[in-house]
Design a protein that fits this description.
The complex is a heterodimer of chains A (about 110) and B (about 110). Helix content of chain A is about 0%, strand content about 60%. By secondary structure, chain B is mainly beta. Chain B is built from no helices and eleven strands. At the A-B interface, strand 5, strand 9 and strand 10 of A face strand 4, strand 5 and strand 9 of B.
Chain lengths: ~110, ~110
């Protein structure tokens, strides 16, 4: 069966520090991968998606970047965090039927 | 640009009641529609997926319908239980891209 792992679960980082969130998928190959952010009162916003290794599409200009170094690994990064980067980050993958499965999320607080 | 609206924003019902959550979308050219459940501080759990060619899907006490031409979907929960308390999110998958567009959700509270 397919599973998705996302870590860490919570993170508190100072302004200006770097960020690296990791997501891995098991039990499938060549999945479409996504990073979403959920901010209070704003709903879920698509940040990045990837249809293959090294292929990244950005939906919203921002302080973040994404990379896909391996088929089932998706990384969200920042060189210098801003207060506005705080939020709940969710990784997801979709299959050929475009059914989405989400990870358990990372609560990021920038202080 | 696809926009998804969920009504009501919050709903409180007594245990055992049947209830309906509503979702509307502006662009009817969708690939599918997916209903999710989110518990506080947790990720999203998929409940039901309806392909654009389907009218409804059922899983246990849940039934989701889709009227693509009118841009509407409903999630029916039968015999609600306190464990059903959560935020329910509707998400639409566009026809030509991979993007899921979410509504802001309905916060459901089922009182024992």
């Amino acid at each position: 069966s397919q599973t998705i792992h996302q870590w860490p679960a919570t993170l508190v980082q100072p302004v200006g520090s770097p960020l690296s969130l990791e997501c891995t998928v098991e039990g499938t190959s060549n999945p479409n991968l996504y990073w979403y952010r959920q901010a209070a009162g704003r709903g879920l916003q698509l940040l990045f998606y990837s249809v293959g290794i090294g292929q990244i599409s950005s939906e919203v200009p921002q302080n973040l970047s994404a990379s896909r170094p391996q088929d089932r690994q998706f990384i969200l990064s920042s060189k210098k965090l801003l207060l506005s980067d705080s939020g709940f980050y969710l990784c997801a993958w979709s299959n050929s039927a475009r059914s989405y499965t989400f990870g358990s999320g990372t609560r990021l607080t920038v202080v | 640009k696809q926009e998804v609206t969920q009504i009501p924003a919050a709903l409180s019902v007594p245990e055992g009641e049947n209830l309906v959550l509503n979702c509307s979308f502006t662009d009817s050219a969708i690939y599918n529609l997916q209903w999710f459940r989110q518990d506080p501080g947790k990720g999203l759990t998929s409940l039901l997926l309806i392909q654009s060619s389907q009218r409804e899907q059922t899983s246990g006490r849940l039934n989701a319908s889709l009227d693509k031409s009118s841009g509407r979907s409903t999630l029916y929960i039968a015999a609600s239980q306190p464990g059903d308390s959560a935020t329910y999110l509707c998400a639409v998958n566009g026809g030509s891209n991979y993007k899921l567009t979410f509504g802001k959700g309905t916060l459901l509270t089922v009182n024992p």
